[in-house]
Amino acid sequence: MRGLLNPKWLFLLNSLPLAVLLLLLGGEFSVIQSLLPAESRLMWRWLTGALLTLAALPAGYAAWCLWRRQPLHRLYGLLMLLLSVGFMFVYFSSMVGKLFPPAVPRWMVGSETSLYAFTFLMPTAVHALLVLVVYSVPPDRPARALPSFGLALAVPLVFFLGGQLLSLLPGGFWDLLESALPNRYHNWVAAAMAALAMVAGPLTFLFFLARGLFIVVSQRAGGWQQHELIWKILIAGVLPLLGLAVNSGLLFGKYSSDGQGIFGDFSSPWFYGLAALNCLLLCLPTPAGRWPRLGLLAARSALLAYTLYFFVVFLPWLPLSVLAIILIGTGFLMLAPTLLFVVHLHQLSEDLAGLRGLFARPVLTAAVVGGLLVLPLGLTATYLHYRGTLHEALAYVYAPDYARRYQLDAAALGSTLQMVQYHKTRNRDLLGSGQPYLSRYFTWLVLDNLTLAEDKLSRLQQIFADAPPPADYDRPASTDGLAAVMGARPLHPRLTRLDHRSRYDARQAAWVSWVDLEVMGTNGASQEYATEFSLPPGCWVQDYYLDIEGRREHGILAEKKAAAWVFAQIQNENRDPGILHYLAGRRLGLRVFPVAPGQVRRTGIRFVHQEPVQLSFDGRPVRLGDSLQHPAPAETATPNREVVYLSRAAKQALPRLQRRPYYHFLLDASAGQQTHRADMIRAVQTQLQQPLAAPPRFTLVNAYARTLPAGADWQQALRAAPAEGGCYAAGAIRQLLTQQQLRPADTYPVLVLVSTATGRPVLDTDFADLAAAYPESPAYYVLTPAGLEARSLAEKSEQAWVEASAPGAPAPVRAWPAAARPRAYLPDDAQPAVVLAQPHVTFPVDAPKTWASGLLLAGYDQELALHPAQAEATRLAAIQASFESGVMTPLTSYLSLENEAQKAALRRKQAEVLQANAALDAGEDTPPSAVPIDGGATLLLAAGGALALRQLRRRGPARKQGV
């Protein structure tokens, strides 16, 4: 331990942690600064100055010591200990409330932010304490360890007896205090007692405990030499294993309903196995040969990472050890990592001293450093494997390459999803939940600091493991309609006024129209106004506003997932957000929150369109533009003719023809339907007795889709198909629709999903993004014992569609550009059309704010649906083009925010989302009912002593008032 007097330690244990602390706090301040009052801003300046001073002074002193080639002085230990601990006490007792006032929402900074100072200053304080310990033990004469251990044990005993004596005072301690001292001194006495309980007591306890242990291991005092093996077994084996068992609830029961321990979840068998192995390595006698001794050094160095991990995890809890020992019978186990760390370091020091004459210094350094890297590199390699497995599965489901044949390792994916679920649900705080630090590392490395929503986790498990859908898979329909029929007054805000105005912009050759909405709150509490509307082809949203507290706040065009996450957080605080976003296909959603009873909220949307359009809001139609004033051109294309817009008249002028339909059966070959394949064969044979115009086709569907060649023996293929995974019908449908769109033919498929009543096909909510692939009809069918049940690809694909026409019913289409060799088939309706004329879309460096930019982005939407793997490479360019042009796309949303802090939080979350895998999520799809306070156990326990003193002080006045 005398090596701790080396000045180089100050750069690692002081300068580096404080630099990280300044960066973390600086990032939080940049978000919340606009919400801070003058007093808080002044406190932030004081905090910055104090941290810079705490970092600069030791760094300068370390440089001076290195220049003078002298060790750290004992005065450094004393002064730095007083400064760091005093700063932490003042920080928690006086500064935190001003740095993060109630005006700052917790979701902007997180509850762990207030713990940063404690976490990153503890290494400095502990090092300073150990410097004092080293100087307190004379190196030239033996010292006794027993008095130090006795004084350490006396500290909690004195506190316990003192508390008991104070409770026995007549009238209570605070009554006696009030009678003896004026009121103005009471706060000083309370602060002094808190400092004594939370600072002086724990420091005294830790000092004498560390001193006694240092004497024992360094001078082999007392019975250490005679009973060294017993002490090592106790410190390296019994205490760690007992602590893990107590924390995990194996002894004395569990401490929480979710199975987490007091200090985190260390229930994995790996923690117990490594603890036992570490004890074994530390207890092994020194081998005779030099190479076995070097191997033992490397092995002990490898397990030092395990010891160091728990030392760092429990480091912030050390000042609370006295309180924990008094309140919790097993609180002394908190000290086990510290004791083990000292013993482990001393053992490595002895090993190095014995090997210096046998090996060169670089060899010994390589053995120690290489050993230290074994566990971190192994953990990193494991997490990288999880990342690769997860991203491959996400690519297959959300950005597939239809030209590639996938075969994923289902077992590896299953364990990966279990780890994602584990860290996802338990990663709530920096300390005290999940696996401290490891869960954060997993989230950073595997999930890019984002998450995987529950519906996506469930979806992957259904696809690759044939897992059942979640319990709320079939959600009940809303009861609002029933309440209205029964005469109850609606509780949700209603649209009270709808205005519109249009002007023709010759610069972009398009109409610019505003639709202004007024909504009023109804009876009851504040509610959200939510509505949906659809856009015709060629009509884009280019601006949005919401009136907030008398001012008009234009929306920020942001990445869709980041915008939804920020909206959900603000909504939980009853503030004033508004969001406009795509739902599916050309269907948009508008949400405004809150709308109080009787309150009128105003919002508006700007549309750009080349032709007059008719929209509908809550059943109120509105027509925008005038074709008589400025008739639309027949055809408009992007500069490179990547995307073509056909007006209504131009589309109606295209050749009209009718294609031949054929059945395309999707046969459920999942693991759960293996015993029902004969029933499915009979059902298909029965349906084929009513043939369509063209011969049928067949695709086997389990976790993957395999389309059989024309004329193949589909019955034998189904019987021989491997029963693996679930029935990923959505992937099969998308693959078939994509092929239909990319290879237009004079026939078209009538999709029929064949499963049984026990089948669990995995379907998308809709396939509206592939609407161009089914111009005849959005209908597809499920083969049931009663016959074919129609459903819609356009929306609610899992529900029956009673309005659907019969399979293969005549449905004319339009051939573009000609009937001879058409490149696309378009629905024969009165709407215009947007056609992707080339496989890929190229975005300009700066997308202009014009209608033509919207046309290019609409083409990219089709490219993303048809070539998801290739289009993923240009996703960021498409989002940037949306930002520059102001045209909202399915990848972006308009969000109106109340203040600059919310906008800064949006920018920070958006940066995280844009750097991560596109399939990952900023949060759950459904907004939480409340923003959880994610932990803060350390802060709560640290404040416990102060709260207890405050409560004791209140007891005297309460008794006088008869409470």
UniProtKB/TrEMBL annotation:
<dbReference type="InterPro" id="IPR013694">
    <property type="entry name" value="VIT"/>
</dbReference>
<keyword id="KW-0812">Transmembrane</keyword>
<feature type="transmembrane region" description="Helical">
    <location>
        <begin position="114"/>
        <end position="137"/>
    </location>
</feature>
<feature type="transmembrane region" description="Helical">
    <location>
        <begin position="74"/>
        <end position="94"/>
    </location>
</feature>
<feature type="transmembrane region" description="Helical">
    <location>
        <begin position="270"/>
        <end position="287"/>
    </location>
</feature>
<keyword id="KW-1133">Transmembrane helix</keyword>
<feature type="transmembrane region" description="Helical">
    <location>
        <begin position="363"/>
        <end position="386"/>
    </location>
</feature>
<feature type="transmembrane region" description="Helical">
    <location>
        <begin position="229"/>
        <end position="250"/>
    </location>
</feature>
<feature type="domain" description="VIT">
    <location>
        <begin position="481"/>
        <end position="609"/>
    </location>
</feature>
<feature type="transmembrane region" description="Helical">
    <location>
        <begin position="320"/>
        <end position="343"/>
    </location>
</feature>
<feature type="transmembrane region" description="Helical">
    <location>
        <begin position="149"/>
        <end position="169"/>
    </location>
</feature>
<protein>
    <submittedName>
        <fullName>MSEP-CTERM sorting domain-containing protein</fullName>
    </submittedName>
</protein>
<keyword id="KW-0472">Membrane</keyword>
<feature type="transmembrane region" description="Helical">
    <location>
        <begin position="294"/>
        <end position="314"/>
    </location>
</feature>
<feature type="transmembrane region" description="Helical">
    <location>
        <begin position="46"/>
        <end position="67"/>
    </location>
</feature>
<dbReference type="InterPro" id="IPR058207">
    <property type="entry name" value="PID_CTERM"/>
</dbReference>
<feature type="transmembrane region" description="Helical">
    <location>
        <begin position="189"/>
        <end position="217"/>
    </location>
</feature>
<dbReference type="InterPro" id="IPR027550">
    <property type="entry name" value="MSEP-CTERM"/>
</dbReference>
